Amino acid sequence: MDRRPLRFSSGGAIRRLLLSPAQVRADVHDELHFHVEERVEELVVAGWAEAEAREHVLACFGNLERIEAECVELGLERIQRQRRTQTMTDLLQDLRYALRTFRTQPLFTLVAILTLGLGMGAATAVYTVVDRVALRDLPLHEPDRLYAIWETQPEQGIAFDNPSPPNLYDWRERTRSFEDLSAFAQISVTWTGGERPVALDGAAFTANLFPSLGIDPLLGRHVTELEERPDGARTALLSYEAWQDHFGGTEVLGQALTLNGQPTEIVGVLPPNLGYPAPGIDVWVPQLLADPNVHRQTRWLNVLGRLADGVSVEMATQEINRVHDELGQEYPDANGGWGVVLVPAKDQVVGDTGRLAAVVLAAVGLVLLIACANVASLLLGRTAARARELDIRAAIGASAGRLRRQLLTESIALGLAGGLVGLLVARFVLNFFLGLEPDIPRVGEVGIDLRILSFVVLGSILCAVGFGMAPARDAQTGGEGTLRGGRQSSGSVRTRRALVSSEVALSVVLLVTAGSFMVGFRALLDVDPGFDRSGIAAAKVSLNGDAYPDSDSRRQYFDQLTAALEALPGVSHAAVTSTLPMDPTGIDFDLARYAEGHPVLPEARTPQTDYRIITPGYIDAMGLDLLAGRDFTRFDRTETTPVMLITESLADALWPGESALGKHITLDYIQRRAWEVVGVLGDTRHVGLAVPPSQQMFVPLEQAGAVFGYMTVVVRGQGQAPLPLNRIRDVAAAVDPNEPLFQIETIEQIVDATVARDRLVTWAVGSLAFLALLLAAAGVYAVVSYQVTRRTREIGVRMALGATRERVVREVLTDAVKLALVGVVVGIGAAALATRVGQALVFGAWSWQPWVLVGVPALLLIVTALAAVAPALRAAGLDPTRAIRSD
Amino acid sequence: MARVGANSLYGTVNLLILKTVASQPDHGLGIARRIQESSGDELQIEEGALYPALARLERDGFLTSEWGQSESNRRAKFYSITPTGQARLTSELERWVTRTQALCGVLGVAWTVGR
């Protein structure tokens, strides 16, 4: 017998409709009920009584309720699975449809994805850098408990001075607030014993430094406190980079290297890419506090303190200041009037980078806004056409939810693509940025991580979804209008115009900012530092303490060196100085000075001035201005009157209105001597181009109380000829092969390095402004083009009625310019506001340059007009008859 | 005659059902009757095993169902086999044959496969 069922349900033609749980229950009930009834009927036909038949059948079933329940549960699972499969199928279908849509509108898709990608990518790159460099906690153990400790002398206006070793000892003895007090100081280390002596960037430190920071060596062990002592074993830690560079990563633990003439055992290698407590140090030597007789005024340490458990920074500051006051009373000469200040470690490291980072972050935020506005505008432009299509689909049976899901899938696909492009852009920008090797603290910590990845992709998707769902709304509310065809809501055009105007406004803000940065930076570069920048080279020397144990031997060496250098062809002057302007390394300190005609104060309260040692010819080598008097000569020697050169600002401060020549300044350093001022120099900027010149004193090498082993050699070339840098190295080797010259660079490079950060920010903001301009131009083009398309019929009518092509072009252009004008006006206003806020953040003086105020609007109007040219020409090229018939 | 419950011959219930439905779509009662017939009245599937098994097979996609009219003009749920179910039937059958042959080997019973 053929049991094929007659088709009962209507489904199956298009797709199966899912059952509801209630239907499932009903079905199970009906199915089991059918079985029961059939069997009962069968038995009745066979002669059973109905009641008994029913009883028998139900007994056969056993527990009918249980069976029914089990089948219902299975049925529910079934529809769950079906629902899941259906969703997957729908999703794939949506995706295929979305891709098809994108293929039919390649330009739109490409522009949307690129815009999203550029915006998100730039924002991500900037945010990554800012986050790692300025926002994140330092990668140290409990970094919020770490503080940098400085001495202050408010009376002299000294806000941060390095503590001295004796002070550190006493703090360690007498304070309870700190779990650890550690310190380090940069020194130069010469490694001999290889082919040729190598100069390393070194640092002396206390044994508890790395444990306090929470940094463990990669290989080997920490140094011990015993090794800190002058009589302890000589050990050192090597940096990872130095280990790789100089030893190729081979076994180095336990080896003894001759550092600064002393055999030193390498007991550990530090982790790679270590930026703390100071970057770029090759070797760490625990001999920081080895000399017990260090003068209390030798302020040269970098001190770090870790707060003890339960101690607040206020408590610690109070305690250490109390101790320091006691020290001030016990040692009034050295410590009188000095205090202590604690700076959180993060602030110490990040410094003012944070402010600059904020500026660039704000700029990229604007670019992101512009990009989003562009994407919104693009998506809105599709609204009209899409709305019609969606209405048709609704009419043939698609549910609102289905349509919404379709749009959602499209938007997500677009957003995802944009996000991926964004990732590529971000990676490219970051690699480029890191390749510049910018001199920013913590730059080694910059890298893309999972958080950033998700930020880009999610942000892009959110953006696309937010704007892409507009057609769905329109389709639902404006249903009757769209199907009539042709006439669309002009609301979307108004919105698009508003969006573009906003973009223009934001671009103006960015361009004005960038322009001001550029002007400011240009001004910075134009600052006269007081010395010549080109044609001069400098190099460092660090004399071995054993080979040159006293000042006389060192003097002799430097005399020989300068003579040999001056003898080189191509060199016009050579000199030596204890510290070079704008050079962050080197021995630089100030001394208390007692000026003639001024009351004598206790040493601790006496003003301190920069003290530098130079050789005759330094003035000529550096191109300094000699305003009065004379330079040092070789006749200024140990036996003759001690002489001194001072800078103009010092002369004016000490003896205003008089000539400083012949006056005396007394210094108490090594010995107490009165120095006669024989010359006044023009002020030089010593710290940076933006920092005002400081008061300076110079004494000749021959007469200096103590001659340091670490000095900078300055060599000036003749005329325009390039400096023979290699020969300089050779000459030094000839004088003493064991004392290599290192860090050979030109003054130009040194000065450039001081403005590197400002240059970086200027370039960053400039690039962002340019990007903003491009995006805004694209936005203008899109809207104008869209308007031309929309009004094709109208244009056709007008041309048929006599309007010339020129007239049409002019109208399109004028309209575009009007659009931009609104944005420009708003933008200038916003820029003015922003300046107020930004004034504090920018280096140098931010002034309203007139050409910025005129130039930026003009630039934008020109760019806008250019962007509108293509659509304008298209409008002019319309064939009136075809245009009228178009829809 | 053995009443085959859910526990005995576990898994074979599915095989019996699939084979029966494969040769002709049917409702639950019909499937049970035909199994009894084909087995020469040796096997009778318990209702408590049959319907959950059918529900499970449908949930897993091996069977599909439609409501139709039985010969007695009542509304009944008819099951038919899906392509996935067909494949499953083949593989289950092969496994059953292999298992049974192995069993016969152990028990020392001769057995030939026929269709």
Provide tags for this entry.
heterodimer, A: 887 residues, alpha+beta, extended, B: 3-stranded antiparallel beta sheet, two-stranded parallel sheet
Q: What does this protein look like?
A:
The complex is a heterodimer of chains A (887) and B (115). With 887 residues, chain A is an alpha+beta fold. Chain A is 52% helix and 16% strand. In chain A, the strands form 3 sheets. Chain A has a 6-stranded mixed β-barrel with strand order 3-4-9-6-8-7. In chain A, strands 14-15-20-17-19-18 form a 6-stranded mixed β-barrel. Chain A has a 4-stranded antiparallel sheet with strand order 13-21-12-22. In chain A, strand 1 and strand 2 (158-161) form a beta hairpin. Chain A is extended. Chain B has 4 helices and 5 strands; from the N terminus they run βαβαβαββα. Chain B has helices spanning 12-23, 28-38, 47-59, 83-107; strands at 2-4, 26-27, 43-45, 63-69, 75-81. The model of chain B has no long low-confidence stretch (mean pLDDT 87). The interface between A and B is medium-sized, with 32 and 30 residues.
Q: Tally of extended strands of chain B?
A: 5
Query: Structural class of the helices, strands and pairings of chain A?
Result: alpha+beta
- Number of helices, where a helix is a run of at least 4 consecutive DSSP H or I residues of chain B: 4
Rg of chain B from C-alpha positions?
15 Å
Shape of chain B: globular
Distance between the termini of chain A: 64 Å
Strand-residue fraction of chain B?
15-25%
| Class by SSE composition of chain B | alpha+beta
Roughly what fraction of the amino acids of chain A lie in strands? Answer: 15-25%
Radius of gyration from the alpha-carbon trace of chain A, in angstroms: 40 Å
The end-to-end distance of chain B, rounded to whole angstroms, is: 23 Å
